[in-house]
Amino acid sequence: MTHITPPRPVDLVAVFPELTRLARTATRLHPRPGTPSVHDSSIGGPLLWPASEPWPHCHAEDHDAERLPSISLADARLERRIRAARNSEGREYTTEEREILDRMEERPATDGPIAMLPVAQLYVRDVPGLHPPEGADLLQVLWCPYEHDDDGMPKTALFWRSAAAITDVLVDPPEPAEYEQDLVPEPCMIDPEQVIEYPKSGELEGELRQRVDQWTMAQIPGVEFDGLEDDDQPYDLLCIAPGWKIGGWISWNMQDPYPNPCPTCGTPTEPLLTIASREWEMNGRHWVPYEDQAADILWGAVQGGPSSPTQICVSDVNNQIIRICPTSHEHPHIQMMQ
Ligand SMILES: [Zn+2]
Ligand SMILES: [Zn+2]
């Protein structure tokens, strides 16, 4: 299944030619629920992990939620599917569904380290825009499925690997005994697509910034965005692709743009992976791939519908952005929420 983003309803470069030099290519990942294997690129799927290497665990003690008993991840995902079926069909649980839900057993809460959870596995062959260290062709991202007090986000860990070097694959990785349900991704296949992005208005300067700020819906008759009136500014809805992606520009939604220097060498970091709570917003439906448009109209913004295939919800429907240092893969990554 391919996913193709329609062209923007307005060509930004035709209106603001200076944007040409600021264009960046981003790779939309287009995650959709599926059954990926360790040999597939995936979101929330199994990792090609060497059996000889310890599985990463989070030893932090600032988990921003009480650690409560949880059902297994498999049951959590089954529960989601049952709930989604009930919601989409607008009915009560069937007797059989109720029995399945009643059989789900909670495991006792623990206070030990938390096994990290696969978030993304991206093979360079599938995903343009990844720039691996020499010899690597696979990026793996895991997280601890809790918000942490220090930055309000799940802690992430990144691994670059050579897939060919992994001959003995771990078949039964540990899973977290407890977790925040909203931070457990539904296993998804991906279908990467490259799109062009321009900076958010907050990152523009001088006369260009002024012209962008003065550009309103009234100047693009015939183009509609949910909830936008003639006086409103459409630029920020057109410049950056929503959803999971590699590279591109940062969609500053919560803060004004600020520099994110590498903690080791001070070089400005660059966005690597955007982990998104939504693939698009209701006022940005022009980003919905052609293939999803009919289903999107049918489902609307329902959790688990076309706009939330991974069922991830970072904090208050935000994006978590992983940034890396362009000078060295050895330097630690940083993360931010927008
Ligand atoms: Zn943790
Ligand atoms: Zn650095």
Characteristic terms for this protein:
6-stranded antiparallel β-sheet, alpha+beta, 338 residues, binds zinc ion, 17% strand, single chain, 15% helix, 14 strands
Short description:
The chain contains 6 helices and 14 strands. With 338 residues, the protein is α+β, with helices and mostly antiparallel strands.
Description:
The structure is a single chain. The protein has 338 residues and is of the alpha+beta class. It has a domain at 1-30 and 191-338. Helices cover 15% and strands 17% of the residues. The radius of gyration is 21 Å and the shape is globular. The structure holds zinc ion (ZN) (2 copies).
Q: Percentage of helical residues?
A: 10-25%
Total of helices:
6
Major sheet summary line: 6 strands, antiparallel
- Could you list the spans in which at least 5 consecutive residues all have pLDDT below 50? none
Kindly state the number of beta strands: 14
Secondary-structure element order, N to C? HEEEEHHEEEEEEHHEEHEE
What characteristic shape results from the CA principal axes?
globular
- Report Rg: 21 Å
User: Major sheet: order of its strands?
Assistant: 10-1-11-12-13-14
- Classification by helices and strands: alpha+beta
- What hetero molecules are in the model? zinc ion
Content of β-strand: 15-25%
What is the CA-CA span between the terminal residues? Answer: 30 Å
- Average residue-wise pLDDT: 94
